[in-house]
């Protein structure tokens, strides 16, 4: 791994005067995902998901960790709502576990639905806006057994799920997001095998992506019909690609990296077509597109969720692709990801330039993992405070350059199950002792709370 840079870390959370953060209309919130925090995987009729299967498979997750218990949020949700409200944030982004609310035969699981109804009602009572993601990677295992997202039928099953749950929860949700990070679901789930279900074939990945996006479009129509007062959007992870190589081929490689990471998803959503250069990168991997699919996929978006974490440095592979090459001497997180706030500004401004129909944006995830420890009852996560300061400054710069960004969600509300990395990597602004489930506000949480109290009092 590349070396770590020494940086001066800020110990205060203090957006400068004139920052968009001082605008009370700019939402500052926190985010989680169902499988990462809920636990209770076999309670109240919940059926198995691909992540239950994957994490229980030896060698797939760090230390063999699973989401079976996680943060115990399913039973501790009332405590967690109180904690969230105490932070003075304006919104909470959460996901619904498809396997918790629907049976294998497609019927509603009323016990699971009741959990989310109670949770959303409590959030509303606290004055928090609710941003609800329908799919944050926990596909029911029985659908994977039939091909998962490589099977076109899964897109229709997803629309049925969206139809059912939006009828059940109408009026309790401010903004629905159909999918979280389809790039990760498609590429890491079916291309690299790093995530559930662990397949390794780029042809499967492009097919899965098409069906994920088709499912998005089909679900969006159901959401609008059933809950017309709510906004409807999608959440995509984006990445900045650069090259320290001097050749034209190296620079083309960086362009290809961003093409497959960003345009692979944004072009279908906003231009109703896949970028043709994708098939230069992946010859012969074109997905089966049926008549009318791209119109469905390119449906109206009320907002676009952007998740951003790091930059990737690449060079040409000497053929038609790229190789990732770590830069030395840069600041990195516990995940090994480079801290590169400028990448967020650059991407936002570029999307604003390249997509005339770009909808309003929310930064739906941004955060950092670190080896946080409770010492004397305190968690002094100054690296996270510095990370948040710098990335929010990048968002502010993008807004000043004309980008319509309306909010920012810290990833994450609490430490949780970090997918293939298990419980070692801590992203939360609230520390979780997994042995006791004790929650401890980190310094970052306290400083955000103080800032919002000051902002909201003006």
What percent of the residues sit in helical stretches (DSSP H or I)?
25-40%
CATH architecture assignment name = Alpha-Beta Barrel
Distance between the termini: 46 Å
Order of helices and strands: EHHHEHHEHHEHHEHHHEEHEHEEEH
InterPro entries: GH, Glyco_hydro_1, Glyco_hydro_1_beta-glucosidase
Keywords: Carbohydrate metabolism, Cellulose degradation, Glycosidase, Hydrolase, Polysaccharide degradation
Organism: Duganella vulcania
Protein name: Beta-glucosidase
Descriptive report:
Keywords: Carbohydrate metabolism, Cellulose degradation, Glycosidase, Hydrolase, Polysaccharide degradation. Its EC number is 3.2.1.21. The protein has 458 residues and is α/β, with parallel strands linked by helices. The protein has a single domain (20-457), classed as Glycosidases (TIM Barrel, Alpha-Beta Barrel), CATH 3.20.20. 40% of the residues lie in helices and 16% in strands. It starts with 26 loop residues before the first strand and ends with a helix. The model has no long low-confidence stretch (mean pLDDT 96).
Write the layout of secondary structure elements.
Elements (H helix, E strand, L loop, with lengths): L26 E5 L2 H4 L12 H6 L17 H14 L4 E5 L2 H4 L8 H16 L3 E7 L5 H4 L8 H17 L5 E6 L1 H10 L10 H25 L4 E12 L5 H24 L6 H4 L11 H5 L5 E14 L5 E3 L16 H14 L6 E6 L15 H19 L4 E7 L18 E4 L4 E4 L1 H15 L1
Parallel strand pairs: 1-2, 1-9, 2-3, 3-4, 4-5, 5-6, 6-8, 8-9
Antiparallel strand pairs: 6-7, 10-11
Helix pairs in contact: 3-5, 7-9, 8-9, 13-14
Enzyme class: hydrolase
InterPro entries: GH, Glyco_hydro_1, Glyco_hydro_1_beta-glucosidase
Pfam families: Glyco_hydro_1 (PF00232)
């Amino acid at each position: 791994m590349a070396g770590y840079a020494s940086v001066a870390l800020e110990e205060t959370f203090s957006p400068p005067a004139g920052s968009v953060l001082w605008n009370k209309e700019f939402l500052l919130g926190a985010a989680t995902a169902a499988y990462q925090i809920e636990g209770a995987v076999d309670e109240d009729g919940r059926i198995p998901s691909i992540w239950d299967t994957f994490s229980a498979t030896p060698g797939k997750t760090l230390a063999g960790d699973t989401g079976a218990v996680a943060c115990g949020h399913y039973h501790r949700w009332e405590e967690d709502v109180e904690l969230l409200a105490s932070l003075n944030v304006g919104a909470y982004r959460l996901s619904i576990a498809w396997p918790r609310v629907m049976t294998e035969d497609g019927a509603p699981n009323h016990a699971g639905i009741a959990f989310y109804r109670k949770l959303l009602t409590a959030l509303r009572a606290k004055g928090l806006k609710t941003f609800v993601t329908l799919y944050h990677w926990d596909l029911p295992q029985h659908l994977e057994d039939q091909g998962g997202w490589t099977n076109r039928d899964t897109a229709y099953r997803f629309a049925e799920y969206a139809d059912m749950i939006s009828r059940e929860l109408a009026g309790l949700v401010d903004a629905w997001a159909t999918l979280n990070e389809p790039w990760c679901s498609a590429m890491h789930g079916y291309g690299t095998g790093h995530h559930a279900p662990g397949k390794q074939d780029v042809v499967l990945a492009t097919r899965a992506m098409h069906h994920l996006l088709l499912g998005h479009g089909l679900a969006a129509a159901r959401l609008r019909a059933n809950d017309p007062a709510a906004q409807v959007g999608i959440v995509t992870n984006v990445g900045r690609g650069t090259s320290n190589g001097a050749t034209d081929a190296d620079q083309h490689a960086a362009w290809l990296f961003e093409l497959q990471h960003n345009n692979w998803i944004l072009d279908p959503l906003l231009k109703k077509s896949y970028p043709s250069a994708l098939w230069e990168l992946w010859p012969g991997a074109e997905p089966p597109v049926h008549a009318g699919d791209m119109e469905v996929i390119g449906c109206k978006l009320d907002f676009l969720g952007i998740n951003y974490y790091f930059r990737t440095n690449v060079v040409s592979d000497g053929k038609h692709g790229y190789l990732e090459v770590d830069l030395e001497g840069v600041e990195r997180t516990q995940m090994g990801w480079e801290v590169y706030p400028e990448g967020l500004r650059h991407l936002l401004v570029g999307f604003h330039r390249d997509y005339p129909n770009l909808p309003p944006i929310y930064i739906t995830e941004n955060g950092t993992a670190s080896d946080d420890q409770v010492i004397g009852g305190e968690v002094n996560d100054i690296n996270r405070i510095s990370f948040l300061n710098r990335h929010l400054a990048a968002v502010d710069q993008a807004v000043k350059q004309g980008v319509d960004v309306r909010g920012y969600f810290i990833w994450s509300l609490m430490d949780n199950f970090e997918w293939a990395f298990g419980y070692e990597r801590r992203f939360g602004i609230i520390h979780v002792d997994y042995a006791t489930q004790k929650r401890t506000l980190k310094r970052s949480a306290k400083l955000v709370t103080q800032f919002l109290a000051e902002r909201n009092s003006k």
